[in-house]
Protein: UPF0260 protein Avin_32930
Amino acid sequence: MAAKVEPFWKRKTLDRLDAEEWESLCDGCGLCCLQKLEDEEDGSVYYTRIACRLLDLETCRCRDYANRRRSVPDCIQLTPAQAGEFQWLPPTCAYRLLAEGEDLPLWHPLVCGDPQAVHRERISRAGRMLSESAVAEDDWEEHLIFRAG
Structure:
C-alpha cells in the first residue's frame, strides 16, 4: 500500500513553491483586487466594495492578468518574499493563511476541487462590487466592507 502524500501546501513552505503551485493558491475570490483605504492613525487596512477597473465583477478574475501591471502600475504582485507582510490580505486568503501557519479552508478549490465554491460560499464579492469608474475616489469611504488584520 502506497503512503499517502500530503498536498504540496502542507509539504512545502511558500518560498519552495514553483510558479504553478504559487498561482494555484489563489482561490479566485478577487478580494485582493478591491480598493483599500489605510487608516493613517493606526495603519489598519479597510477593504471597499470598489473593484479595480480590470476585475470582472461577476467572475472575480482579472480581465488582463498577464499585462495588469502595465494598465494598473500600482497592482501588487504577491511573492513568497513578501509573506511576512500579508496581514493586509483578507483573512480567508490562502497566501495569508499559509504564511501564518494555517491550513486551507474546506471551500478552497485545491481542497474541494470546485473553483466555484468560493462564490457559492460567498467568500468572494461576485456580483456585489462596484467598478472604480462608477465611484469617485472621495466617496470610497462610503463603501467599506471589512477591516483586514
Notes: Residues 8-148 form one domain. The first strand starts at residue 34 and ends at 38. Strands lie at 34-38, 45-51, 130-131, 144-148. Helices lie at 8-11, 19-24, 68-71, 94-99, 109-112, 117-120.
